[in-house]
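Lab notebook, page 48
Experiment: co-folding of the full assembly
Goal: obtain a model of how the components sit together before planning crosslinking
Operator: M.T.
Materials (sequences as entered):
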Amino acid sequence: MSPRTGEQNAQIKDERREQILTAALKVFALRGFAATRVGDVAAEAGLSHGLVYHYFASKEEMFYELVSRAVYYSGQSLVMVDGMPIEPIEKVRQTAKYIMGGIEAGQETSYYFLVVIHAGVMESSPERDKFFQGSTVAVDTMEKILREGQRMGQVREGNPAEMSVMFFSAIMGLAVYNITMPGFRMPDPELLVSMVSK
Amino acid sequence: MSPRTGEQNAQIKDERREQILTAALKVFALRGFAATRVGDVAAEAGLSHGLVYHYFASKEEMFYELVSRAVYYSGQSLVMVDGMPIEPIEKVRQTAKYIMGGIEAGQETSYYFLVVIHAGVMESSPERDKFFQGSTVAVDTMEKILREGQRMGQVREGNPAEMSVMFFSAIMGLAVYNITMPGFRMPDPELLVSMVSK
DNA sequence: GTCTATATCCAGATAGAC
DNA sequence: GTCTATCTGGATATAGAC
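Observation: model returned without errors.
Model output:
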């Protein structure tokens, strides 16, 4: 084989893998891990059942690849917001607006949150627990933002770690609500901001 | 058979049924519907696998009996709180303290919330959707409390329906957090109160 | 790389003994 | 009323053809 063909193959392989993961994200988010059949993912991706196993060793591996990405992306978004040249309370506002908008739109943002929720409420296992140990970047970054906001007199008194947890709890709950109730209307993000602002 | 024996049998039947439901509540809450095996419930209840089917037609029926109770109980708690001779903002405070305390203790309160969450994130079905149509009592009652609080100048301006949804979203998220993270420490309920108070 | 066919296992549900 | 044994369907994962 020439290098050219090898490269092309590698590219196809990557594309297929992403194609499967995109389908899997949606299906896992909407049904959870146990209720999802590998055949459902294959159908959503428009591929054969067997091919999925050419790219992933197991249904579990596929799922945790998504959980892993979800945790990583959520951490990165917060780090990015934190890097913006705006005031702390404005960072909180941007985060609330961005995430809630994404959930309401029912796209990837929403799916990633739901996958994390499904993973969280799954029966505990070594595999599962591993992913929630490195999952504190988003919460920790928000805590840091809130602490800074307190120093600048923009954020109310109280434990910033607890506030951060409450912030993300509310967002997770909204993701659940949004998928539970058809026709759910997202509340004003400003409510979340007011929870922590002075 | 004498009437006496009939009554005794009926009582045993009721007790067994409750015994099974108590076990099922815990197992469903911790694993979700699809991942729960009927054998798991039987084992938790200390009964044989087959006996469960003497009391319930299917795994689904068992699950939705629990969802139904969860929805009913949560509605009733709110109605009860609303009936107390205290100020609106104090009703909000009592609700937050009571529910968050129950979740932290990891007992029935927590399990009922988790069952509702599992039901909510399950794939949509006619069976499932039925239960979420009559499930608005708690949210509606909280909305009413908040509206009254606004009239009395205790609750901040804004859409009380949205505030109520946000309130319960945060609580659902906390239930998820609590089961996701081992050693999770519940935030101060006062944070939730401050979200809606003036 | 992709598909179809199949092996294998496991869980929901039932039957029948006690 | 309770249990053990069993039927049966369906889902994960694999094998092998193209």
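Interpretation: The two ends of chain A are 66 Å apart (CA to CA).
Next step: discuss with group before ordering constructs.
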